[in-house]
Design brief:
Length: 409
């Protein structure tokens, strides 16, 4: 017992995992609870036509992702020099400020600028992942990161429901203030309960200038790192391409009748439910039997569950397949992060997780554009088929460009 307490004081990764699970849950709620009514808020900020509301809503969504993709590597490099805990505090309090100011916005350009400001202060979840990855023994990394992912996943699952209820009771503007309060709480928890014994690690002198010589020059297998980063982009692109059309697809399958909004909400929530259950178990299995094997199997499983979604004729069949999507996500996202952790030097842990966040943000941007474009040019089912094809291409890229993954632990 004494030895366990001593180990926890020296390397308190378990307590940090519990605390940061709660903080990432709060962050997930804060990020997603505004989504159901953001377009409605846009329409309140001016006398816009339907086309203008759609256009400005797209700008509002894209502003955060674009800035996040640009600044994440900068914050990650700073975290590797100054520590991850201070980045958690910076991100939570900064985003709380941006959210509070959004509730005071009086025109669309102020809202777009504040959404960009939110992106500037991004990085809470990626730094939480980096902190846990840096502290956790390598033999427990898969399970720990898989567990941590369920925090933000479950928060994002609850967020839209909570946001809709808060907006109905307190108004849209007041919901921004409540969201700011949640992020402020996450900042306080991070500041007071998270422990980090951070010792800056000098960059290898052999590292050259630029991304390839600077960051990738620190890795034994830089090609593998690049392939994993692009895998994050592909997976997020596939998931996000579905988001703009899933409710419309549900409406079509229900023949424009019934409680479409309610059913669409359930269908949208199903992957999150199965992800929460699957991710820690798949992570623990990967720690014992090989994370690379889990990743390859996850891609193959994802292709098999996405492709038939383009041909279903029943809402029940779609719901079952969407439930399986959460299992594939539980095998893909945490395992990519685990492999990045296991193949990264300590001097680059935060930097590589921030680059991973950048690629995820780019996937969000391109996925939304791709899903809407394909649905407009063809039909909703084409979006699911194209997602399956993209994931198959990603699997082949991993198979041939990173053969070490087939045996990676």
């Amino acid at each position: 017992m004494v030895k366990e307490q001593s180990d926890n004081q020296q390397n308190p990764w378990r307590r940090n995992l519990y605390v940061l699970w709660g903080c990432t849950f709060i962050a997930g709620v804060a990020f997603s609870e505004l989504m159901p009514f953001m377009s409605l808020y846009v329409s309140q900020l001016g006398n816009f036509t339907k086309a203008q509301v759609s256009f400005y809503s797209g700008l509002v969504y894209a502003a955060t992702f674009l800035v996040t993709a640009i600044v994440s590597p900068i914050w990650g490099a700073l975290a590797d020099r100054k520590g991850r805990k201070i980045m958690l505090i910076r991100a939570s309090f900064g985003m709380a400020t941006a959210m509070f100011l959004m509730g005071l916005a009086t025109n669309i350009w102020q809202l777009i600028a504040l959404r960009a400001l939110q992106g500037l202060f991004s990085g809470f979840i990626s730094n939480a992942q980096a902190l846990i990855a840096a502290q956790t023994p390598r033999e427990n990394a898969g399970k720990a990161l898989g567990t941590l992912v369920t925090g933000s996943t479950s928060g994002m699952l609850m967020g839209p429901i909570l946001g809709g209820a808060l907006a109905s009771v307190f108004s849209i503007r007041n919901t921004f203030f409540i969201t700011a309060g949640l992020l402020f709480v996450a900042g306080l928890l991070s500041a007071t309960l998270v422990t980090e014994h951070f010792v800056p690690i000098a960059k290898p002198k052999a590292a050259g200038k630029g991304l390839l010589g600077g960051l990738l020059g620190q890795f034994q297998n830089p090609k593998l790192i690049v392939v994993l980063l692009f895998s994050t982009l592909f997976v997020q692109l596939g998931n996000t391409s579905i988001a703009p059309i899933i409710s419309l697809y549900v409406k079509e399958l229900m023949h424009n009748g019934g409680a479409v909004a309610f059913v669409a909400g359930i269908i949208a929530a199903l992957p999150g439910i199965s992800n929460i259950l699957a991710a820690p178990r798949l992570g623990a299995y990967g720690d014992k039997h090989g994370s690379g094997k889990i990743l390859m199997a996850g891609y193959l499983f994802a292709v098999l569950v996405y492709f038939p979604q383009g041909f279903v004729t029943s809402i029940w069949a779609l719901g079952f397949l969407r439930l399986l999507v959460g299992i594939s996500d539980g095998a893909l996202f945490p395992t990519i992060q685990t492999l990045l952790t296991k193949n990264s030097p300590a001097s680059a842990t935060s930097a590589i997780f921030s680059w991973n966040q950048s690629f995820q943000a780019l996937g969000n941007m391109f996925g939304s554009l791709l899903g809407g474009t394909l649905a407009g040019l063809f039909d909703y089912n084409v979006v699911f088929i194209s997602t399956a094809c993209m994931l198959l291409i990603n699997l082949l890229m991993l198979w041939f460009a990173a053969p070490s993954l087939r045996h990676a632990r």
